Amino acid sequence: MSKVISGRYTAQMDGPFVVFMIGMRVNKWWAVHKWLPVFAAMSPMLQELYRNKELGFIDGSFHFSWRGVTLVQYWKSFEQLEHYARHGAVHLSAWRNFNRKVGTGGVVGIFHESYLVEAGQYECMYNNMPRFGLGRAGEHVPATGRRETASRRLGRESEPAVPTPANPGKTSV
After folding, report:
1. Are 11 and 141 a contacting pair, CB within 8 Å?
2. Residue 16 in contact with residue 25, Cβ under 8 Å?
């Protein structure tokens, strides 16, 4: 289990990056033989990406719902993401298998969304959380000073609406 880091933190990313969301939705629960292979195909792709950082993948995390799963990924560039999608051996195999075995039958749905984020055009805050999301993909820094409010994190001016608690920086379980 990840350690909770007490206090308020934000993420620092150098340069532009891509947020890529990919997931599946189970539409017919009784068709386990159709949707389970789709779910199982995600792990080998992630293993390939974590082993080969030169592909441009930074980090990712799973988010589960009762109907399926979403994987939020962070990439260095859209070009690297697209190159992996079109040329990554594990991904191409999974894509071909999905089209051959599931296709448009409606048993399981898949989706993806890509967001190209320019440098400094994001903001995030994590309070009493383990390193998470962009805070895990990038540098995890205290949300103080010019990083104290959402507006300041976006390069604008604002004062805190409520006093910011002290940031002890202690780690707990």
Report:
1. yes
2. no
Residue with tokens 């629960």: 29
First to last CA, the chain: 8
Please write the tens of the pLDDT for every residue from 18-48: 999 999 999 999 999 999 999 999 999 999 9
Using CA atoms in the order 133, 2, 47, 110, what is the torsion angle rounded to 10 degrees?
-50
- 25: tokens are 């939705």
What pLDDT score does 71 carry? Answer: 97
User: Given pLDDT bands bounded at 50, 70 and 90, which one contains residue 168?
Assistant: low
Give, in order, the Cα–Cα distances in Å from 31 to each of 44, 105, 109, 131: 22, 11, 12, 36
Cα 49 from Cα 85, distance rounded (Å): 11
Specify the pTM: 0.89
The SS3 assignment for 55 reads: helix
57 bridge partner residues: 75
Quote the mean pLDDT of the chain.
Answer: 93
Tokens of 162: 């409520």
Question: DSSP string of 76-118?
Answer: S-HHHHHHHHHH-HHHHHHHHHHHHHTTTSSSEEEEEEEEEE-
Instruction: For CA atoms 38, 107, 112, 99, give the dihedral sign.
Output: positive
